[in-house]
Amino acid sequence: MEDLRLNVSLLRRRVPNLTTAAKSVGLRPATVSNLCTGKIPVGRSEVRTLVALASLAECSLDELIIRGEKIEMIETKIKTLDLFAPLAKGGTIGLVARHGMGQLVLLSELFFRLKKDDFTTILLIPNGNYPELNDVTENTDFIAHTINEVYEEIAVKGKTSEIAFAADRRNVVTGEIYDLQERLQGIGITTVTTFLVDLTGEAVDEDLPYGPLETLWQFDADLSARHKFPAVNPIHSTSSVLEGAHLDQNHLTTQQRAQKLLRRYRELRSLVNVRGLEHLPGAEIQTFKRGERLEAYLTQPFYVAEAFTGQKGESVALSDTINDVRKILDGVTDSIQADQLSYIGQYIAD
């Protein structure tokens, strides 16, 4: 089948308040979000949904649906991101979290890693006092206080460097982010990778907190409470990079198998917490243990946290992550305890 995806940047420009607009024509915001990130392939969506979106954007279906174009992945070497919700190069990435779940630590870590890969990092400081942003600013090349300062910096640096830009959700609500993206496209700069965070924690209660996205990272309260960082939900986070034609088949198959295991593991955890592990059938005990190992393996020490944890940061190539996860899924690691896989880099058998 021809590779198809939504023109997400067009939707962002034409329909900034997509949640309200989608509801007004009878579309579920969650469906629209899943179409934008590729969780629902365009080829499997209902025609009436696509027609309604085209109507909202005041465009034709040919303009709304992009054919034969792939979205490039930025390999972060952060295991859970690369496997489950890859970073879309030049896309808009939304981080959805409440306070204390680690979204700013993850953003700081990403800026640290991207700078090592010769990206120019830019942060738009929101109005108000946010000392929690200090860790992010340490890994930021340019700190802006207005959207015009951001535009002027990207207009110069974007001609010779890849750009990683971060802003607060309030700049989305005001429409400034969409205006900025349109202005940059007007001068031929389309490779800005934009990270959107929510310092208020209100985004978790919204259906489409940032509008159309290429990548969505949904943080998980349970993982955060149990100190399983990065606390990005591997089931509900997604990316347009995951559309089948964009991925190596081994990656896609492993990602799907891992999600299936983790879904069942989460169901079993609630039973084990109430009744104990001994009340599970034998086959389910194996599933539970493998899910526990996989969850432990997906934790990772960050470079920006070394001073606080005393543990050296780790980078794991995507190919190594896929191989390690397959070992866990296939039972190769059944003889070891989950805590032996916690906060490691690549798994290396003794």
From TrEMBL:
An MF annotation (GO) of this entry: proton-transporting ATP synthase activity, rotational mechanism
Pfam family, one: ATP-synt_VA_C
InterPro entries: ATP-synt_VA_C, ATPase_a/bsu_AS, ATPase_alpha/beta_chains, ATPase_F1/V1_b/a_C, P-loop_NTPase
Gene Ontology CC terms, in alphabetical order: proton-transporting ATP synthase complex
Stretches that traverse the bilayer: none
Subcellular location: Membrane
Gene3D superfamilies linked: Bovine Mitochondrial F1-atpase, Atp Synthase Beta Chain, Chain D, domain 3 (1.10.1140.10), P-loop containing nucleotide triphosphate hydrolases (3.40.50.300)
Primary subcellular site in the record, as a coarse category: membrane
ATP synthase A/B type C-terminal domain location: 246-325
Keyword annotations of the record: ATP synthesis, ATP-binding, CF(1), Ion transport, Membrane, Nucleotide-binding, Translocase, Transport
Record family assignment: Belongs to the ATPase alpha/beta chains family.
Protein name, as recorded: ATP synthase subunit B
Natural source organism: Cytobacillus solani
Lineage of the species this protein comes from: Bacteria, Bacillati, Bacillota, Bacilli, Bacillales
